[in-house]
Amino acid sequence: MTVDYVLRRIGFFLLIVWLAATLNFFIPRLSGQNPIRERLLEQALVGGYVHAGMNDMVAEYEQRFGLDQPLWVQYIRYVGDLARGDFNYSIANYPRTVQEIMLESLPWTIGLLGTTTILSFVLGTLLGAFMGWPRSPTFLKFILPPLLALHAIPYYLLGLVLMYVFSFYWRVLPNIGGYTPGLIPDPRALSFWWDVASHAVLPALSIILAAVGGWALAMRAMVVTVQGEDYITFADAKGLRDKTIFLRYAIRNTLLPQTTSLALALGHVVSGAVLVEVVFGYPGIGSVLFGAIRQADWFLIQGMVFMLIVTLGLATLILDLVYPLLDPRITYKKA
Question: Is residue 326's pLDDT more than 60?
């Protein structure tokens, strides 16, 4: 791998981020909505009447948020703010900033999605590898149909089923929130973390059960494919043990595509499992993004989407640069 190639990949990454951030700026504005007016009208209707000076209030808040400026001025200011990591104030939660809201919800999503992604990857990859190997135990063949059936069910619907069974029928697990309402969060208390873990079981289980089948199916297909390769035949002809052929030849040569998928899946972790978090009322990025879209909170949507763009782009960039270390057959040198 040459320095020139690394610089070109970094430049391409920055270009993609800029293009995506530009679309992120213009798409909400194509709706024609005025988020300031809609927010103030919503608050006024809650009180039972519309204030006579509504237009003056809208104009004042538009000036405060910079929405009274021409579009090109807003865009230049937007790019400058992004370069400094400033996403402005949240329209629906003023005077809280977008950074404050994201930093509060991000640990919940990373904890939930990071754990479930790793667990589903490990379980699915191991099961798929054993199911694709002809000398594996026979009973493993009966595991694939249930996994594929669960994989076909959207994880939020699976979450509703789990919620009914474990929260309403058996009443053994909580069904909403990140922790018990009214509980004062204390990171030093073991009881608080136990409460958080119990609230995360159902959303985590719904994601894992729906994802394991996909990982297993992909790994099984790749293990079946490599069985006809020359190196497998040669290793078998040399009299190597079946365990050695399976681990050092079959698994080792099928992990690269799985690693690619894992890196892309981890890049999506910060986006949150939107519908799962909404169903379970989990206080993560997905719930915040859902609320921001409903309230037309432009700045919060822009901050969330831009964070997703950067993380996914970084995951792809790192994976591209690490590929030659994972597989020496891959090289970026010119022939």
Answer: yes
